[in-house]
Design brief:
Layout lengths: L2 H12 L7 H13 L13 H10 L2 E6 L5 E6 L10 H27 L6 E6 L11 H14 L4 E7 L5 H8 L5 H4 L2 E3 L5 H4 L34 H21 L16 H15 L8 H10 L2
Parallel strand pairs: 2-3, 3-4, 4-5
Antiparallel strand pairs: 1-2
Helix pairs in contact: 1-2, 4-5, 5-11, 10-11
Protein name: CRAL-TRIO domain-containing protein
Pfam families: CRAL_TRIO (PF00650)
Organism: Triticum turgidum subsp. durum
Length: 303
Protein backbone atom coordinates (compact mmCIF):
# COMPACT_ATOMS: atom_id res chain seq x y z
CA UNK A 1 0.00 0.00 0.00
CA UNK A 2 1.40 3.41 -0.97
CA UNK A 3 1.21 6.59 1.10
CA UNK A 4 -1.50 7.93 -1.24
CA UNK A 5 -3.70 4.99 -0.23
CA UNK A 6 -2.94 5.71 3.43
CA UNK A 7 -4.07 9.32 3.03
CA UNK A 8 -7.23 8.30 1.18
CA UNK A 9 -7.99 5.77 3.91
CA UNK A 10 -7.67 8.47 6.55
CA UNK A 11 -10.13 10.64 4.63
CA UNK A 12 -12.65 7.81 4.68
CA UNK A 13 -12.19 7.14 8.41
CA UNK A 14 -12.44 10.79 9.47
CA UNK A 15 -15.51 11.29 7.29
CA UNK A 16 -17.49 9.09 9.72
CA UNK A 17 -19.48 11.23 12.18
CA UNK A 18 -18.27 9.26 15.20
CA UNK A 19 -14.60 9.91 14.40
CA UNK A 20 -14.44 13.65 14.24
CA UNK A 21 -14.39 16.49 11.78
CA UNK A 22 -12.52 17.88 8.82
CA UNK A 23 -10.28 19.74 11.27
CA UNK A 24 -9.19 16.46 12.87
CA UNK A 25 -8.36 15.09 9.45
CA UNK A 26 -6.24 18.13 8.68
CA UNK A 27 -4.50 17.82 12.05
CA UNK A 28 -3.66 14.22 11.26
CA UNK A 29 -2.36 14.99 7.76
CA UNK A 30 -0.33 17.94 9.06
CA UNK A 31 1.13 15.71 11.78
CA UNK A 32 2.23 13.24 9.13
CA UNK A 33 3.77 15.98 7.02
CA UNK A 34 5.56 17.79 9.85
CA UNK A 35 7.05 14.59 11.24
CA UNK A 36 7.82 12.96 7.88
CA UNK A 37 5.72 9.94 8.78
CA UNK A 38 5.41 8.87 5.15
CA UNK A 39 9.14 8.08 5.16
CA UNK A 40 9.35 6.54 8.64
CA UNK A 41 9.68 3.04 7.18
CA UNK A 42 12.95 4.14 5.55
CA UNK A 43 14.51 5.12 8.90
CA UNK A 44 15.88 1.99 10.60
CA UNK A 45 16.70 2.06 14.29
CA UNK A 46 20.48 1.60 14.43
CA UNK A 47 22.45 -0.27 15.53
CA UNK A 48 20.53 -3.56 15.44
CA UNK A 49 21.38 -4.24 19.09
CA UNK A 50 19.42 -1.13 20.05
CA UNK A 51 16.41 -2.39 18.13
CA UNK A 52 16.79 -5.73 19.91
CA UNK A 53 16.75 -3.91 23.26
CA UNK A 54 13.55 -2.11 22.28
CA UNK A 55 11.92 -5.40 21.37
CA UNK A 56 12.95 -6.81 24.75
CA UNK A 57 11.30 -3.96 26.66
CA UNK A 58 8.31 -2.99 24.48
CA UNK A 59 6.59 -6.34 24.17
CA UNK A 60 4.46 -6.61 21.07
CA UNK A 61 4.17 -9.13 18.26
CA UNK A 62 2.01 -10.57 15.50
CA UNK A 63 0.75 -14.03 16.45
CA UNK A 64 -1.45 -14.91 13.46
CA UNK A 65 -4.87 -14.13 12.02
CA UNK A 66 -8.45 -14.38 13.22
CA UNK A 67 -11.05 -16.59 11.62
CA UNK A 68 -12.23 -13.47 9.77
CA UNK A 69 -8.72 -12.82 8.46
CA UNK A 70 -7.74 -9.98 10.80
CA UNK A 71 -4.17 -9.76 12.12
CA UNK A 72 -3.86 -10.68 15.81
CA UNK A 73 -1.38 -8.64 17.83
CA UNK A 74 -0.18 -9.53 21.32
CA UNK A 75 0.93 -6.91 23.84
CA UNK A 76 2.82 -7.71 27.03
CA UNK A 77 1.52 -4.64 28.84
CA UNK A 78 2.46 -5.74 32.33
CA UNK A 79 6.02 -6.81 31.55
CA UNK A 80 7.05 -3.98 29.22
CA UNK A 81 9.61 -1.82 31.03
CA UNK A 82 10.57 0.89 28.49
CA UNK A 83 13.96 1.22 30.15
CA UNK A 84 16.53 0.44 27.45
CA UNK A 85 16.11 3.38 25.09
CA UNK A 86 14.81 6.94 24.92
CA UNK A 87 11.15 7.84 24.56
CA UNK A 88 11.87 8.93 20.99
CA UNK A 89 13.15 5.49 20.01
CA UNK A 90 10.17 3.71 21.55
CA UNK A 91 7.80 6.08 19.79
CA UNK A 92 9.63 5.65 16.48
CA UNK A 93 9.39 1.86 16.79
CA UNK A 94 5.69 2.06 17.61
CA UNK A 95 4.92 4.31 14.64
CA UNK A 96 6.92 2.05 12.33
CA UNK A 97 4.85 -0.89 13.48
CA UNK A 98 1.64 1.06 12.83
CA UNK A 99 2.78 2.04 9.36
CA UNK A 100 3.96 -1.48 8.55
CA UNK A 101 0.58 -2.79 9.66
CA UNK A 102 -1.27 -0.35 7.40
CA UNK A 103 1.01 -0.66 4.38
CA UNK A 104 2.02 -4.33 4.50
CA UNK A 105 0.16 -6.48 7.06
CA UNK A 106 -3.43 -5.37 6.37
CA UNK A 107 -3.06 -5.43 2.54
CA UNK A 108 -1.48 -8.88 2.88
CA UNK A 109 -4.36 -10.04 5.09
CA UNK A 110 -6.83 -8.71 2.52
CA UNK A 111 -5.12 -10.65 -0.25
CA UNK A 112 -5.03 -13.87 1.79
CA UNK A 113 -8.70 -13.68 2.78
CA UNK A 114 -9.99 -12.43 -0.55
CA UNK A 115 -11.78 -9.50 1.07
CA UNK A 116 -10.91 -6.08 2.45
CA UNK A 117 -9.37 -6.24 5.93
CA UNK A 118 -9.03 -2.84 7.63
CA UNK A 119 -8.76 -3.71 11.32
CA UNK A 120 -6.84 -5.94 13.69
CA UNK A 121 -7.45 -7.63 17.05
CA UNK A 122 -5.27 -6.90 20.08
CA UNK A 123 -4.74 -9.21 23.05
CA UNK A 124 -3.41 -7.26 26.03
CA UNK A 125 -1.61 -9.36 28.65
CA UNK A 126 -1.73 -7.75 32.10
CA UNK A 127 0.57 -10.26 33.78
CA UNK A 128 3.07 -8.54 36.04
CA UNK A 129 1.26 -5.22 36.53
CA UNK A 130 2.36 -3.42 39.68
CA UNK A 131 1.76 -0.07 41.28
CA UNK A 132 5.26 0.94 40.17
CA UNK A 133 3.88 0.93 36.61
CA UNK A 134 2.65 4.45 37.38
CA UNK A 135 6.12 5.52 36.32
CA UNK A 136 5.30 4.45 32.76
CA UNK A 137 2.02 6.34 32.36
CA UNK A 138 3.66 9.24 30.53
CA UNK A 139 5.36 6.89 28.05
CA UNK A 140 2.19 4.91 27.40
CA UNK A 141 -0.04 7.96 27.19
CA UNK A 142 2.33 9.38 24.57
CA UNK A 143 2.06 6.24 22.45
CA UNK A 144 -1.67 5.91 22.86
CA UNK A 145 -2.31 9.60 22.10
CA UNK A 146 -0.55 9.10 18.76
CA UNK A 147 -2.75 6.07 18.05
CA UNK A 148 -6.00 7.70 19.05
CA UNK A 149 -5.52 10.87 17.02
CA UNK A 150 -3.65 9.57 13.98
CA UNK A 151 -4.54 5.88 13.57
CA UNK A 152 -8.29 5.73 14.31
CA UNK A 153 -10.46 2.67 13.72
CA UNK A 154 -7.58 0.24 13.27
CA UNK A 155 -8.52 -2.05 16.15
CA UNK A 156 -11.84 -3.92 16.22
CA UNK A 157 -11.50 -5.43 19.72
CA UNK A 158 -9.16 -5.19 22.68
CA UNK A 159 -9.06 -8.41 24.71
CA UNK A 160 -7.75 -7.94 28.26
CA UNK A 161 -6.31 -11.16 29.73
CA UNK A 162 -4.49 -12.24 32.89
CA UNK A 163 -5.80 -9.21 34.77
CA UNK A 164 -4.74 -9.06 38.45
CA UNK A 165 -7.28 -9.26 41.23
CA UNK A 166 -7.28 -5.51 41.85
CA UNK A 167 -8.25 -4.90 38.22
CA UNK A 168 -11.94 -5.45 38.98
CA UNK A 169 -12.18 -2.68 41.57
CA UNK A 170 -10.39 -0.15 39.40
CA UNK A 171 -12.30 -1.11 36.27
CA UNK A 172 -15.57 -0.21 38.01
CA UNK A 173 -14.18 3.28 38.61
CA UNK A 174 -12.79 3.85 35.13
CA UNK A 175 -15.41 2.22 32.91
CA UNK A 176 -18.07 4.96 33.34
CA UNK A 177 -15.54 7.58 32.24
CA UNK A 178 -14.83 5.95 28.87
CA UNK A 179 -16.50 6.91 25.63
CA UNK A 180 -19.22 4.48 24.66
CA UNK A 181 -17.55 3.53 21.38
CA UNK A 182 -14.36 2.66 23.29
CA UNK A 183 -16.11 0.58 25.94
CA UNK A 184 -17.77 -1.47 23.23
CA UNK A 185 -14.36 -2.52 21.92
CA UNK A 186 -12.91 -3.69 25.26
CA UNK A 187 -13.50 -7.22 26.50
CA UNK A 188 -12.04 -8.32 29.82
CA UNK A 189 -11.64 -12.10 29.75
CA UNK A 190 -11.23 -14.54 32.62
CA UNK A 191 -7.64 -15.62 33.18
CA UNK A 192 -5.75 -16.15 29.91
CA UNK A 193 -9.04 -16.11 28.00
CA UNK A 194 -8.22 -19.14 25.89
CA UNK A 195 -11.75 -20.46 25.40
CA UNK A 196 -13.20 -17.08 24.45
CA UNK A 197 -10.35 -16.28 22.08
CA UNK A 198 -10.72 -19.65 20.35
CA UNK A 199 -14.14 -18.45 19.21
CA UNK A 200 -12.51 -15.80 17.03
CA UNK A 201 -9.14 -17.37 16.17
CA UNK A 202 -7.57 -20.79 15.76
CA UNK A 203 -5.28 -22.27 18.39
CA UNK A 204 -2.21 -21.57 16.24
CA UNK A 205 -2.96 -17.83 16.34
CA UNK A 206 -3.35 -17.63 20.13
CA UNK A 207 -0.64 -15.60 21.86
CA UNK A 208 1.67 -17.87 23.85
CA UNK A 209 0.41 -16.46 27.16
CA UNK A 210 -3.12 -17.64 26.36
CA UNK A 211 -2.42 -21.23 25.34
CA UNK A 212 -2.19 -22.77 28.80
CA UNK A 213 -4.37 -22.02 31.79
CA UNK A 214 -2.36 -20.01 34.31
CA UNK A 215 0.55 -19.68 31.89
CA UNK A 216 0.87 -15.90 32.13
CA UNK A 217 3.37 -14.35 29.76
CA UNK A 218 5.81 -17.21 29.94
CA UNK A 219 6.05 -19.49 26.93
CA UNK A 220 6.88 -23.17 26.82
CA UNK A 221 10.20 -24.32 25.47
CA UNK A 222 8.74 -25.21 22.07
CA UNK A 223 6.94 -21.89 21.64
CA UNK A 224 8.29 -19.08 19.50
CA UNK A 225 8.25 -15.85 21.49
CA UNK A 226 6.27 -13.42 19.32
CA UNK A 227 7.89 -10.50 21.16
CA UNK A 228 11.43 -11.51 20.27
CA UNK A 229 13.66 -9.66 17.82
CA UNK A 230 14.32 -13.10 16.29
CA UNK A 231 10.64 -13.79 15.58
CA UNK A 232 9.90 -13.88 11.81
CA UNK A 233 7.49 -10.93 12.06
CA UNK A 234 10.07 -8.62 13.64
CA UNK A 235 12.80 -9.83 11.29
CA UNK A 236 10.56 -9.12 8.28
CA UNK A 237 9.64 -5.68 9.59
CA UNK A 238 13.24 -4.69 10.38
CA UNK A 239 14.53 -6.00 7.05
CA UNK A 240 11.75 -4.14 5.24
CA UNK A 241 12.81 -0.88 6.88
CA UNK A 242 16.46 -1.47 6.01
CA UNK A 243 15.53 -2.22 2.39
CA UNK A 244 13.48 0.96 2.16
CA UNK A 245 16.44 2.91 3.56
CA UNK A 246 18.75 1.45 0.90
CA UNK A 247 16.32 2.48 -1.84
CA UNK A 248 16.33 6.04 -0.53
CA UNK A 249 20.08 6.16 -0.04
CA UNK A 250 20.86 7.70 -3.42
CA UNK A 251 18.55 10.65 -2.84
CA UNK A 252 18.95 11.30 0.88
CA UNK A 253 22.26 9.66 1.70
CA UNK A 254 23.01 6.70 4.00
CA UNK A 255 20.88 6.07 7.07
CA UNK A 256 22.17 7.82 10.17
CA UNK A 257 22.04 6.72 13.76
CA UNK A 258 19.71 8.70 16.00
CA UNK A 259 16.04 8.65 16.81
CA UNK A 260 13.21 10.54 15.19
CA UNK A 261 11.78 13.47 17.12
CA UNK A 262 8.03 13.22 16.67
CA UNK A 263 5.66 15.91 17.85
CA UNK A 264 3.10 14.22 20.06
CA UNK A 265 -0.54 15.33 19.77
CA UNK A 266 -2.05 16.70 22.94
CA UNK A 267 -4.95 14.61 24.32
CA UNK A 268 -8.23 16.44 24.66
CA UNK A 269 -9.62 17.61 27.99
CA UNK A 270 -11.81 14.55 28.45
CA UNK A 271 -8.85 12.18 28.07
CA UNK A 272 -6.76 14.30 30.43
CA UNK A 273 -9.53 14.16 33.02
CA UNK A 274 -9.73 10.38 32.72
CA UNK A 275 -5.98 10.02 33.16
CA UNK A 276 -6.07 12.26 36.24
CA UNK A 277 -8.87 10.18 37.74
CA UNK A 278 -7.03 6.93 37.03
CA UNK A 279 -3.84 8.13 38.67
CA UNK A 280 -5.74 9.38 41.70
CA UNK A 281 -7.55 6.07 42.15
CA UNK A 282 -4.37 4.04 41.69
CA UNK A 283 -2.44 6.12 44.21
CA UNK A 284 -5.21 5.37 46.70
CA UNK A 285 -4.53 1.65 46.35
CA UNK A 286 -2.08 1.01 49.17
CA UNK A 287 -0.34 -2.35 48.97
CA UNK A 288 -0.81 -5.07 46.39
CA UNK A 289 -0.42 -4.77 42.67
CA UNK A 290 -1.73 -1.78 40.71
CA UNK A 291 -2.89 -1.60 37.14
CA UNK A 292 -1.86 1.85 35.99
CA UNK A 293 -0.26 0.66 32.81
CA UNK A 294 -3.29 -1.30 31.70
CA UNK A 295 -5.61 1.66 32.20
CA UNK A 296 -3.42 4.18 30.40
CA UNK A 297 -3.62 1.94 27.39
CA UNK A 298 -7.30 1.11 27.72
CA UNK A 299 -8.33 4.72 28.18
CA UNK A 300 -6.49 6.40 25.36
CA UNK A 301 -5.70 3.75 22.76
CA UNK A 302 -9.38 3.14 22.12
CA UNK A 303 -10.86 3.41 18.62
Amino acid sequence: MCTKDIHEGLCCVFSRPENGTFLKLMDCLNWRLQNEIDSVLAKPILPADLYRSIRDTLLVGLTGYSKQGQPVYAFGVGLSTFDRASVNYYLQSHIQMNEYRDRVVLPGASEMSGKQINTCLKVMDMTGLKLSALNQIKMLSTITAVDDLNYPEKTETYYIVNAPYVFSACWKVVKPLLQERTKKKIKVLYGPGRDELLKVMDYASLPHFCKREGSGSGSSSDEVDCYSYDHPFHQELYNYVKQQALRNQDSVGPAKQGSMHVRVPTPDLEEAKIMETIQSELHSLKGGDGISRSFSRITIEGP
